[in-house]
Amino acid sequence: MNTKYLNIYNEIAGNIEKGEIKPNTKLPSENELVKKYSVSRDTIRKALNLLEQYGYIQKIRGKGSYVIDINRFDFPVSGLVSFKELSEKMGMKANTILEELQIIKPDKYLMNQLKIKENDDIWKVVRIREIDGKKIILDKDFFNKSFVPSLTEDICKDSIYEYIENKLGLCISFSKKEITVENATKEDKKYLDLQGYNMVVVVKSHIYLDDANLFQYNESRHRPDKFKFVDFARRKKLME
Amino acid sequence: MNTKYLNIYNEIAGNIEKGEIKPNTKLPSENELVKKYSVSRDTIRKALNLLEQYGYIQKIRGKGSYVIDINRFDFPVSGLVSFKELSEKMGMKANTILEELQIIKPDKYLMNQLKIKENDDIWKVVRIREIDGKKIILDKDFFNKSFVPSLTEDICKDSIYEYIENKLGLCISFSKKEITVENATKEDKKYLDLQGYNMVVVVKSHIYLDDANLFQYNESRHRPDKFKFVDFARRKKLME
DNA sequence: CAGTGGTCTAGACCACGGT
DNA sequence: CCGTGGTCTAGACCACTGA
Predict the structure, then answer these.
(1) Model confidence over B199-213: pLDDT tens digits?
(2) Topology (CATH level 3) of domain A4-67
(3) Fold type of domain A83-226
(4) Percent of all residues in chain B with a pLDDT value above 90, rounded to a whole number
(5) Which end of chain B is more exposed for a tag (fewer CB within 10 A), N or C?
(6) Which residues form the HTH gntR-type domain (chains A, B) (predicted)?
(7) Closest residue of chain A to B58, computed from CA coordinates
């Protein structure tokens, strides 16, 4: 990491994750941290703001910064985390089956989702995620080919995000997710071990690069009993 | 509003919402905004950071700040928004039926969820949410009585949050939500118009005050076809 | 090259909590 | 009262973009 405030953030966040700083204890005050790290107060405040934003601490005016007792190991699906990153973090026996990989022309639905024209090229990737030997998730990805010129089987079986960020040098910035529950389709029943469930949880994501270009649409279909989404949210500042 | 940067944030956010600033256009540069508002650059940057955080703009180094084309009117369940605030914003015909309001002693499950002891008092509030005449959501709330000494039927039919924030002067700060899908219980079938669905979407929330005290546990059970959760997320900065 | 946003500093004053 | 975090300022240097 390059910047001072990110270094400090990572150090403190790591200490909280490792349990070296206990929940409900107080962090050193900003002025003490200024001395400890020999940086300006603003730099400390940037680091603390990040910690607050990601749910590590709660700052209380006049009192100090307190470590929040949130069990972070629950299931961190919030934010943007790829399946590979996630399963590694959770220590699950995960496996990916590549079902389909081809270039297609978009139908009306995809044109709308990816905001593209009818003769643009799209990478379509269909993958099945196995966890502990059970086919749990059906992942359908659509990439705008103008951002991702080539894709191979090996990349899809590994992590597409890793390829995109490290090899292509693209920077993924933000996403908009939508979670609904739908009746299982024939395709769901064909590919997944639904064990009698007739519904699936559907997560639709639009994923953007740091230049605000929409470059991926993803549809992730989960067996309902194996789905869990955890969200940490701060109360919004009001308007008007 | 008190602070300069919040004023500026609200003004720009409002202009984006009203469509006075169009998506994919560029905001004035930070230096121009400094002149326009006669404030320091840091104050402008605070406002812009908020706008970025809440998905209004994307800042691109060397280029400028661009208004993001995200349809914000979709369904803003992310963040902390009460049912009343939400239904008003969406212009839905919503109605609340108060089913139960009493003080109870916690069972083991509640003691764990609210992190309290067995002889602490708990407010239990059960409400059914009707939308367009259909019973869609079963809302079960549990408040630690030491924070909320009294509750009346009128408050529960209106907005408990409003009462808590405005009358009691408590400040709600953050929440941790968990979304799962479960088989419908007898209680679900009794209170809701499930229309044959045998599953419900369950949202469990732990809600904290700004002094980091846990004061409410909420369980919200939704008919699956009427449930939708939208999340805007920025890619997390990595650790290590 | 000039203009942009990103980081960092040093100092000031304020509002709040606890003593 | 002092120590805390919250806001605000003015100025510096850097990295990146685009002409």
Answers:
(1) 999 999 888 888 888
(2) Arc Repressor Mutant, subunit A (1.10.10)
(3) Chorismate lyase (3.40.1410)
(4) 47
(5) C
(6) 2-70
(7) A212
